[in-house]
Fold this sequence. Notes:
Layout: E1 2-5, E2 11-15, H1 41-53, H2 66-69, E3 77-79, E4 93-95
Amino acid sequence: xxxxxxxxxxxxxxxxxxxxxxxxxxxxxxxxxxxxxxxxxxxxxxxxxxxxxxxxxxxxxxxxxxxxxxxxxxxxxxxxxxxxxxxxxxxxxxxxxxxxxxxxxxxxx
Length: 109
């Protein structure tokens, strides 16, 4: 977690980031298959050859938040983060709508 502070460095509130513990997921129970967005080398070579032939300019980018913006297919639930468990509802879990780092389902989203 992280403390959010005001201009005079007084703690206004605590902020926590909800993370998935993907290493505890079991294949066949929590997910069916894994996936990684990796282009085959043949596709890359073909693309570069076509771009060179047509004299196109090629740019490279890295999308750092691609795992955070995908909509999940299916239901995924996570428990409350340690240190932020609700006193009224200690057994409640969160249903995720969007992918989180650490989920086995994140690349498919």
